[in-house]
Amino acid sequence: MENNDILIRLRYAQDIKNIDMVEIFKLGGVKVTKDEVLKMLKKPEEEVYGAIDVEENDDYIKCNNKTLESFLNGFITFKRGKQDPKPGQPEIPALTNEHVNNMLLKKLKIALALTSDDMLDIFKLAGITVTKGELGALLRKPGHKNYKECGDKFARNFLKGLAVKYRG
Hints:
The protein is mostly helical.
């Protein structure tokens, strides 16, 4: 799943306004304008015709992993408030190097103050059943023996379940 698609689905599920999107990016340490946000949220014309690799142009900006993670860090701050860093801790969290979908689940869990049971219910709303063990494997650190990479289907269904939960 493309990072731009994740932004589009998350924006819809949480009913985030354009001006709030700019603020969330700013809280995550990325300065973007409202026009740039709109270009990230626009589906590229080539996608309609089946092209897989879409290049940036005047009407479309591709969201990379760093930008998406910064947005999700800003989303945590937007939803939960700014937290004072502990001594020796950086002001802005360091970027991780894990799979995008796993990072998405972890950061949304934090931002929306979800428990594991809440997450399982959200998956259920999307029409799929996930066990606690499977969810635990998705939320582990890379390198842990029980870590499992989150596939696009899980991430897409989680965002779909969020939309059902928060938008009815």
